[in-house]
Amino acid sequence: MENHYIAAMQRALVLAAQGQGRTGSNPVVGCVITNSEGSIIAEGFHTGGDHAEIVALKSLAHIPEGATIVVTLEPCNHVGKTGPCTEAIIDAGIKRVVFAVADPNPIAAGGFKRLKAAGVEVVAGVLETESRFVNRAWLHVIEKRRPLFIWKIASTLDGKTAAQDGTSKWITGESSRDYVSELRRVSDAVLVGTGTVIADNPELVPHDKSGLPNPLRVIVGERDIAANSRAMDERALTFHHRSHDLTVLCTELLARGVKQVLVESGSVLGTAMVQAGLIDEIILIQAPTLLGAGQSFIGDLGITTLNDRLDLEVIAYSQIGSDLMTHLKVGR
Predict the structure, then answer these.
(1) Residues 151, 155, 158, 160, Cα dihedral to 10°
(2) Is the pTM of this model over 0.90?
(3) Catalytic one of 53, 74, 264, 281
(4) 53 is catalytic
């Protein structure tokens, strides 16, 4: 494997990430085109319209001989909103395609075989692990038939999300709140329970000025929400799931094209989702402070012995301002 394939794929992954929260039910995909020397001459990523490969191809007036397309997902081989990317690549005279992840969607799969049949050299599996992570929400929907749920928790060092008197704003610092705004931006939906809306009156929208549509706000629970609540304003669509049936919730979210959900609920709904096996990842942001007493971020899971503990896998960790962030995968 030539080193410039890796460098080009790293750039394609950066581009793919820019499409997070913008592609609806479709995958996030990044693409670059390199010349015969391995230099990048075109770029593209999917935002819900043209596929990444098409964006990159359209940006070039001329495809030089020896050009290579490097893309994070196997080029599609079906007619959907657009034509097959495989045919566009073949028609452009591209003779080499490098991709990271094979397309698991049976409707769109077959790109590898179609390209090979047309005499195109195909290299598969370059930075596959990294690409699967960037596109994990879409892959999760394909494999599990439900959205990926990421529970964001802001707590003290001893795991408290509120003091005994109920006060909770603000435990973590301003830099962490900016980080949470970024998490909302790359999500398709932000989910809370009715209790959180009634107690905290949150906005549940990113605080940036990107001009992009805000993610869907999802409120779970049977209690009524006041019409003048900030979560009901015009800055984003709001879906009130008036039930505690989480299986039905997953079905309804899929029908709305939701792949990735940022859960910002309190301990009651968060614990229920953990018990139901729905929390896939946890982003725990801890302020370097202690309360000793107050509301814990997690409730009783029915675990009575250490052997039955719920183990988590550390994906990443970092310092955000004065706070500590740990990104964890929930093991099952």
Answers:
(1) -90
(2) yes
(3) 53
(4) yes
